[in-house]
Amino acid sequence: MMLPTIPTPDELLDKGFRRGKKAADLRRGEKMPKRLKGKRIEETRVITACQVIKDRLKMILDRTPEIEELPEFYQDYIDITVGVDDFKQALGAVNWAYGIITQLEKEYGAKIRKAPSERATGLRKQAYGRISSVVHKIEKDLDFLDFAKQSLRNMPTVDFDAISIVIAGFPNVGKSTLLTHITDAEPQVANYPFTTKGIQIGHFEKRWQHYQIIDTPGLLDRPIGDMNDIELNAMVALEHLADAILFIFDASETCGYALENQYNLLEEIKNVFDAPIIYLFNKMDISDYDGARHDYVQEYIDKTENPLLISAAEGEGLEEIIQLIQQVEKREIAEEDEDEYEDDENYF
Ligand code: GDP
Asked: Could you write out the three-class secondary structure of the chain?
């Protein structure tokens, strides 16, 4: 998401006062009675400074998207990353400053026009003092908005028309190998809270339907019991996005996690996610499934519904995965609301 560039209070004031002075200087050549001219010059300085500062504040407000109008995933994302309440409060402060400066512009414009000419410079200085104090009052809000801009700069770009599949499974089970094998081109890498490697989103298209496969190293690859509230929120944001979960077991256990632990992670994820789950047993090429480890691996295969046995590295079973993904339907939360609405209509 692109947020507008945020100035510091001093940058904002410097620009306003500098432009005020420039506009006033242009009037110096005008022909009019000297007494009147002095007042005009000071009035011009105040009004121009106020307008320049107001324009800049308005630009910040206009170019910042309305959070409530963003898709729920982005609202969650902003909330986890910077806090929606703080964000709104900072924008509220900018709006407040805009209002006060509008008032000062009117108030001091009128005062300078009415006052005797020898008071004009004093009034202009007074106005500048008050403008400066207002702008400095929103210093922490401007700081916050700048921090938000930096934090939200590399936000994931999600295609909300696509069917979204979120990959889960312990580290090294083959998640990113699978992602790169079933999607086109290089996956998009964006920031995601509580993940050092960020989020990876790959895309493919089948029969005019877009699919996006999402991997979040560092989030859906460890026990949920260890997570704090904010990390859980980061996960719930993914839950809002997922039309299905692709849960990957490493049947070879070369990832370093026993199948029992992998199964426990699956159980935890099932508790958090409502989305349907596609089960994959990966690294079948090195799992000795045809040999001594058959019964051991089979025990876990039998615990899951319609699992696919694959080898992501060797490209074995990828077509079957794509077929299963094509059966995934979009989870339409909005449509359910519509149904409720229709019921209400019938009621009357
Ligand atoms: P992630 O941490 O879950 O994303 O796992 P990676 O995709 O990085 O894979 C971890 C390691 O397992 C890498 O060295 C992969 O090459 C390897 N790997 C992934 N899938 C397979 C597979 O099907 N067979 C074999 N033999 N190795 C695999």
From this structure: CCCCCCCCHHHHHHHHHHHHHHHHHHHCCCCCCHHHHHHHHHHHHHHHHHHHHHHHHHHHHHHCCCHHHCCHHHHHHHHHHCCHHHHHHHHHHHHHHHHHHHHHHHHHHHHHHHCCHHHHHHHHHHHHHHHHHHHHHCHHHHHHHHHHHHHCCCCCCCCCCCEEEEEECCCCCCHHHHHHHHCEEEEEEECCCCCCCCEEEEEEEECCEEEEEEECCCCCCCCHHHCCHHHHHHHHHHHHHCCEEEEEEECCCCCCCCHHHHHHHHHHHHHHCCCCEEEEEECHHHCCCCCCCHHHHHHHHCCCCCCEECECCCCECHHHHHHHHHCCCCCCHHHHHHHHHHHHHHHC
